[in-house]
Write a structure and sequence with these properties.
- The chain has 260 residues and is of the alpha+beta class.
- The chain has a single domain, classed as Alpha-Beta Complex (Creatine Amidinohydrolase).
- The protein contains 5 helices and 15 strands.
- The strands form 4 sheets. The protein has a 5-stranded antiparallel β-sheet with strand order 8-7-9-14-15.
- Strand 14 and strand 15 form a beta hairpin.
- It binds 2-amino-4-trifluoromethylsulfanyl-butyric acid and cobalt (II) ion (CO).
- The site of cobalt (II) ion has 5 residues, from loops.
């Protein structure tokens, strides 16, 4: 069943989402060659707790960490470890937090130092596809309209769209109905309505769409070992329009300073 949120609940969910936005920005300060993803995980957990929130992923179905840190051919659900990041890598950092009983859940893909232009383009197009999906939200629209917008932008650029994992409703639970696939047909699926909160999260591969799970039971990788990018926003529907509860502004302020 789909849980429709009140205006008060949406305000609480904005606060939860913004805890995650600020956590990603805190993590962004430390992303550089030589740092381990375990270290980033500690930064994230300490920051979330300092905000009166708790990590949303840790303990979820037995997941062991605060962040999912997915490097290069890892698509999502990479477990933080002691391998140092290297120049030329990319890393998707996905983070969840629970504040006052509501989840925030969002993700950003970062470059480590200089990366190949073709990989930067993958990152840019994946982020664009997220916003194109969000822009579809409007009166009379359906989940399939979001899905189609994401899929067509990615495939137009020759990329593979992951089928096995999807976005989702978000609220008092990390994963609620409806499921929000990144591929689909215009005009299909659940009708969008006010009070829905959706975690929209394109996972886009430079090469083929096929993925597999590593023996750790979590990490999803591309079968062709080419890199994959992932961005995620939490979006409420209010008066027929999308309201993005999370923000990349804090992360991008940190990145702008690093490149200045
Ligand atoms: N954003 C990811 C998802 O919605 C978060 C995975 S959380 C985990 O699936 F705890 F399951 F790792
Ligand atoms: Co999610």
């Amino acid at each position: 069943m789909i849980y429709i949120k009140t205006a008060e609940e949406i305000e609480l969910m904005r606060q939860a989402a913004l805890v995650v936005s600020r956590t990603l920005a805190e993590v962004a300060k430390y992303i550089k060659p030589g740092v381990t993803t375990l270290y980033l995980d500690k930064i994230a957990e300490d920051y979330i707790r300092s905000q009166g929130a708790v990590p949303g992923f840790k303990g979820y179905s037995g997941y062991p960490a605060t962040l999912c840190t997915s490097v290069n051919e890892q698509v999502v659900h990479g477990i933080p470890n002691s391998r140092p990041l290297q120049e030329g890598d990319i890393i998707s950092v996905d983070c969840g937090a629970i504040r006052k009983g509501y989840y925030g859940d969002h993700a950003y893909t970062f470059a480590i130092g200089q990366i190949k232009p073709e990989i930067q383009k993958l990152i840019d197009i994946t982020k664009e596809s997220l916003y194109l999906g969000i822009e579809q939200i409007g009166p009379g629209k359906r989940i399939g309209d979001i899905a189609y917008a994401i899929q067509s932008h990615a495939e137009k650029n020759g990329y593979g769209v992951v089928r096995e994992l999807t976005g989702h409703g978000l609220g008092k639970n990390l994963h609620e109905e409806p499921s929000v696939p990144n591929f689909g047909k215009r005009g299909s699926g659940v009708k969008l309505r006010d009070g829905m909160v959706l975690a929209i999260e394109p996972m886009i591969n430079l090469g083929k769409k096929e993925v597999r799970q590593l023996s750790d039971g979590w990490t999803i990788v591309t079968t062709d070992k080419l890199p994959s990018a992932h961005f995620e926003h939490d979006v409420a529907i209010v008066d027929g329009k999308p309201v993005i509860l999370s923000t990349f502004d804090y992360v991008e302020e940190v990145l702008a300073k690093q490149h200045a």
